[in-house]
Amino acid sequence: MKLTSPNKLVSVSIENGELISYLKNGEELIHQKGSAGWRNSDTEMFPVIGPTSDKDYLVNTPKGNAVQDQHGILRELTYNLKNSSSNTAVFQKKYSANTIVKNSKFPEKSSAENLHWPYNFNFEKSFELTNNSLKITFNIECEKNMPFMLGYHPAFKLSGDNSEVISTSNNNISLQNIIDSGASAYPILNTSELTLVKEKGCNVNIKTSGYNNFMLWTEVPNMLCIEPITAYPYVEGKMLNKKLFNTAKETNFFEVLITPINK
């Protein structure tokens, strides 16, 4: 589906809840499927962030152990369109506690055949396109006190010449620094805003609410995943440390504002 800004000059394309295009002034801002680097354009990480194989895919919760593969069970579920307009769309994934879900990574990339989580949740992903920005919100309704981590995982298109920089209020990070950080990604902690600075085309400002951390990942110079996260999972080698999990309210709200900046 396609969303169009009120002034008809900006458009967004969404495929089954996945952001696959953001066009402004004819410039594509989103990494395109089929290009080198990653097979997707965006996804979510929930209710865990990071790999789980070192823990035999087990995540301890107050309701017992759950089986989760890397980045959680949510990505194995299918979005349904709840409602939409010319410039908005709301998608939804629902999960009933302890429902067995087949793991698409099994057996080639994982030994965990089936996944499950001991809590109900309703996960909504909303898009709102204005003339100036794209707002993506996540609304999670679940049982109070459910432990969870949340990450949003969009990929942005780059020039391919290794010239881009990530700028924060107190630091500039080169693309090569991010590539060198490897699979564990480059953490930017205790910040809710950063900017992708490019030599050509629009810079891209990303401002968040509810996360307060980012991690940056790529293995190639033509794309960069800029991922708002509730917690960086690769701390002191202690994967899935209880301190990394949020404690849910009945309703949990997160926001990502993506703003292209003309130079």
From TrEMBL:
Keyword field: Calcium
Record bears the keyword Secreted: no
GO biological process: carbohydrate metabolic process
Pfam families registered for this protein in UniProt: Aldose_epim
Gene3D superfamilies reported for this sequence: 2.70.98.10
Keyword Calcium listed: yes
CC cofactor: Ca(2+)
GO molecular function, one term: carbohydrate binding
Annotated InterPro entries: Aldose_1/G6P_1-epimerase, Gal_mutarotase_sf_dom, GH-type_carb-bd
Assembly and interaction partners: Monomer.
Protein name: Aldose 1-epimerase
Organism: Lutibacter oricola
